[in-house]
Specification:
9-stranded mixed sheet; alpha+beta; 569 residues; Rossmann fold; BirA Bifunctional Protein, domain 2
């Protein structure tokens, strides 16, 4: 492609609404343009990268015996109601009515649809195992689209689904997809980390997320350099510590202290001149409509995934002010376990060993000091309910851990029979017995891969695309198109490489050399072929590696063989 014939609207300045480097560079490089919040057009450069990512996905999925399908984006709500997810997803579902008044749902994912498809078309164990996948646009009413294409309301996903006769079959299918994911992310040039994860609203047992460490990520992962343990902070276990030392403290007399208008851990700690670890905060939740009080050490963060899983709740949300006043008889900010009424109380395991701690007094503008479990209130339920911190040891080996921000690019689940039971995806086994298919689910955020690659591969000048998914593998930078010899050599190199099957962009603009160099670096083409007047006279070009900056002089007639060697490396 010649630049003068292409749509590549590069920009000198960052867009004002861009927060992360991938968003800035995708807009500045002419890869995307925003239509509305959470919805983007992919321009030719962006589309080319998308298609190369899709091709890699297809190659690896097909290599594992998967078959591609394409399912509708418009779904009947009845099928979502059968699994209960119509209510679970709630406002995330984008719903509309057609001219006949019928309600429809725009697909945020396709577990229900694929299960219904298989239920109506697969009847015997002889037709299993089966793995089907699609690459499809999904729709979710995101409350806060952000970070460019990392979190959007409309996005492209690859979702695959396995159907097996038994647990051993699911294990084999799961391993196939896990291995395929590793190959896909390696080929896309992503520094991915597979981590243990929570299945969430998908359901099932075993789950892994494929994470790319990045400050732009909305997720956090735990990594142990010693034993290679890795997990999402949502599931990383916290072990009890310090119980023996704390239990040796002699109980002191309980007392109420005035804390006028002071409702935060930080402010209470400051007023009473103690560290936040001496406080116990009481968080009031509603779990499936039931009021639950969760006790946590003041310096710890609630892990709502752990709380929800412990309670086996479908929904979990912080209680409203009225509910808090009903159970505490006090406004928000002064809740405590002493005298709490009409609420189930559960405490994090780190609270179990505490003595003489500080809590809210269930009274406006007051807290209580020297609170002790057993003497001042009873506790029957303890569980791991908090987020792991960098001060915790590795859940597997006890050694120091690192907590990193990360972008989720893939997620795999062992679903079991949740969907096949609800939607009747059953088969006859070899004894003629009817059984539900055992399912697995495997998703990849296709559009999110682009942003993740850029977050991991950039410098002060722009993007550095891996050769495998770059919009073009090489760019020819003709420094002066008015020079007859420069034009001749540039066009010869372009024709040679195009004939050899290489993706080449030819910058044939009558623009200053500085502009061409800046644009080439901005859009991140891996190989830059520079044709200047002096070298052109000798039929020589400079080949520059975008990543390393290494420059090699090559005879124009040898350019195909040279770049074949470069690509093999």
């Amino acid at each position: 492609m010649k630049w003068t014939q292409a749509l590549i609207p590069t920009l000198k300045e960052d867009p004002q609404d861009a927060e992360v480097i991938s968003h800035k560079l995708m807009v500045r490089g002419g890869f995307i343009r925003k239509l509305i919040s959470g919805s983007y057009s992919y321009l030719p450069l962006g589309f080319r990268v998308l298609e190369k990512v899709k091709n890699i996905i297809r190659q690896e999925m097909d290599a594992k015996g998967s078959q591609e399908v394409l399912m509708p984006s418009i779904h009947p709500p009845e099928i979502w109601k059968k699994t209960g997810r119509y209510d679970v997803l709630g406002d995330v579902l984008i719903k509309f009515r057609d001219r006949h008044g019928r309600e429809h749902v725009l697909g945020p994912t396709h577990e229900e649809i694929i299960t219904d498809l298989v239920a109506n078309n697969v009847k015997s164990y002889k037709e299993l195992p089966l793995i089907l996948y699609q690459i499809q646009t999904k729709f979710r009413d995101e409350p806060r689209p952000r970070f460019g294409v990392i979190r959007t309301s409309e996005f492209i996903m690859k979702d695959a689904y396995s159907f097996d006769c038994d647990a051993a079959g699911l294990e084999a299918s799961y391993k196939k997809m896990y291995d395929a994911y590793c190959r896909i992310f390696e080929r896309c040039g992503l520094p991915y980390i597979p981590v243990e994860a929570d299945p969430g609203m998908m359901g099932g047992s075993v789950s892994h997320e494929f994470m790319v460490p990045s400050e732009a990520g909305e997720d956090r992962i735990v990594v142990c350099a010693k034993c290679k343990y890795s997990a999402s902070t949502e599931v990383a276990a916290c072990k009890p510590r310090g119980k023996a030392a704390a239990s040796k403290e002699k109980p002191l007399p309980i007392a109420q202290v005035d804390t006028p208008g002071i409702t935060t851990i930080e402010k209470v700690s400051e007023l009473l001149k103690v560290g936040p670890e001496k406080l116990v905060k009481t968080l009031i939740y509603k779990a499936d409509g039931n009021v639950v009080a969760v006790l946590l050490r003041g310096d710890h963060e609630a892990n709502e995934t752990k709380i929800k899983n412990y309670l086996k709740a479908v929904s979990l949300e912080l209680a409203d002010a009225k509910t808090i006043e009903d159970v505490t008889r006090a406004p928000v900010g002064f809740s405590g376990p002493v005298g709490l009424r009409n609420a189930r109380i559960i405490a994090d395991i780190a609270v179990q060993g505490m003595a003489n701690f500080i809590t809210g007094a269930n009274k406006k503008d007051a807290h209580i000091i020297n609170v002790n479990i057993g003497r001042d209130f009873e506790m029957k339920e303890y569980a791991d309910l908090r987020m792991i911190t960098k001060d915790d040891g590795c859940p597997a080996c006890g050694k120091p851990i690192e907590i990193k921000q990360a972008i989720e690019v893939g997620h795999t689940f062992k679903l079991g029979t949740k969907y096949s039971d609800a939607l009747g995806a059953k088969f006859l086994d070899k004894d003629g017995k009817e059984l539900p298919a055992i399912m697995g689910c495997y998703g990849i955020g296709v559009t999110r891969i682009l942003a993740s690659v850029i977050e991991s591969n950039n410098d002060k000048d722009g993007i550095i695309w891996p050769l495998s998914i770059a919009p073009y593998q090489a760019i020819i930078v003709a420094l002066n198109m008015d020079d007859k010899k420069v034009k001749e050599v540039s066009e010869d190199v372009y024709d040679r490489l195009s004939a050899a099957g290489m993706d080449v962009l030819f910058d044939d603009r009558n623009a200053p050399a500085g502009v061409k160099f800046k644009d080439a670096d901005l859009i991140g083409i891996p190989i830059k072929i520079i044709v200047g007047a002096k070298n052109a006279k000798k039929n020589i070009v400079e080949v520059k590696d975008r990543k390393t900056g290494a420059v090699t002089e090559v005879a124009s007639k040898d350019i195909e063989s040279h770049l074949k060697f470069v690509r093999k490396k």
